[in-house]
Design goal:
mainly beta; 7-stranded parallel β-sheet; 6-stranded parallel β-sheet; 1 helix; about 5% helix
Amino acid sequence: GATTTLHAATIYVPDNFKTINEAVKNASPKDTIIVNEGNYADNIVITKPLTIRSLKGPDASMVHALIKTEPVFKVSNADEVALIGFTITDSLTAGIYFYNSHNGQILDNKIINNGNGVFLYSSSKNILTNNSASSNEQYGIYLEASNGNVLKQNTINSNKDKGVFLNSSNNNNL
């Protein structure tokens, strides 16, 4: 039979899809979504390996929670998800929430004015580098039952409760 080679695609927001969520829904595993500068109101649910990154960094691309009671970025049962270069704000729960998601990367984000900044639950071997988690209601970075994660060069300040909180989490490298 014929063999088909699948190549990962690059999808642009808002050129190809108006919202990040629409791009995510239409993306295939391993695709890259590049987000142009602008203010986006969205709750993004990711259930497959994807890279989502801003074109010009966190000062140019802001994502606000459209539904305040949901995380801005919710990664659920997905491995190898990368979230790179956003300002993430306005969620009462979490700016970035990883549930049962492993080997992901959270890089170069400003996570401000959320319930929690980054919340990892049952999520292991993720890398969190060069993020700023500040002015969140509870924790800057919260790990629950999450092992083997690496946190480096993160700036965490002015969170109302704790900066970094680990609960039932082992072998994390800070």
